[in-house]
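Can't paste images in this forum, so I'm doing it all in text. The chain is below; anyone willing to post the predicted structure tokens underneath?
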Amino acid sequence: MSANIQLVTIVAVSTSFISLLGCGAAHDPDEKYFLVATNTKVPYWQSALAGLGRAGSQLNVKTEMAGPDTYDPKAEQQEFQKVVKQKPSGILLSAGDAKLLQSDVDAAIAQGIPVITMDSDVEGSRRLFFIGTDNYKAGTMGGKVLARALHGKGNVVVYTMPDQANLHERLHGYQDLLAAFPQIKITKIVDIKGDATLAYDSTKNILDEGSGKVDAFVCLESLGCAEVANVLDRRHVLGKVVIAMDTSPNTLEWIQKGGITATIGQKPFTMAFVGVKMLDDLHHHKLAKLDGDWAQDSFATIPSFVDTGETLIDKNNVDAFVKKLAETKN
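Text version of the structure:
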């Protein structure tokens, strides 16, 4: 993302928060905001739930997370439709399958319900804007770590869920970065379908097959790499590079033990916290219309993208990160 776009985003977000601080409008007792996601029980989404609740408490409004406990895009679509029928004040949405949800997002907007996407976008829909990680940048960050750890040469297996737009962007970032290292090759891409067991089993099968040397394992989602590290540890396989995504407790533990090289940390708490506050601002300071072409409007009163940032966590800073994480939970 260019410096100019970042500046516009920062100004837009700052303006939004200024209006929030100066807002004297009372909150309606029926005012309610939803976060709709999939695989909601994983640590990543529990962190987002904490941010959702924190914002709700500060604003004195109702908040709720909805969606399936497992990775089930169709079930998420059904939950989104149920939420829309409740006519909430606003919806945060992380799409398991963007194509599946595009028409539903447009229908919500048509009914006057503000929809902001977070974590995983629904490009091409009428959603107002996206809050989350610059996923392409996260991919290039991981690619730099991978290339350095492999000393510019090696075979790589990637674990992902291809239907999620954010994971596709991360893979694109890795691929573009690795284009400068022709001796590093992605030899296999594994769809784990949101199931950590598939990551575990796939890693076992890859080691058992012995069809080609694998030097590194990259996970574009939060579940896979702890399972990869577990298999490698059980098989007493040393010297492999493992690049994870997100900061689930078991991922951090494997970094501390040396089983995972590094992880790219996101900020789901921040995404949900900021998302609710911006939805609340939109509820109390309504746009003239919801279906504007905001990304192309040079005088838009809302941003097109709010970048919440990403953090590289490795053996050098993992202990400090774990300590800070514990402090935020107290």
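The domain at 3-133+267-308 is CATH 3.40.50.2300 (Rossmann fold). Residues 1-24 have pLDDT under 50 and may be disordered.
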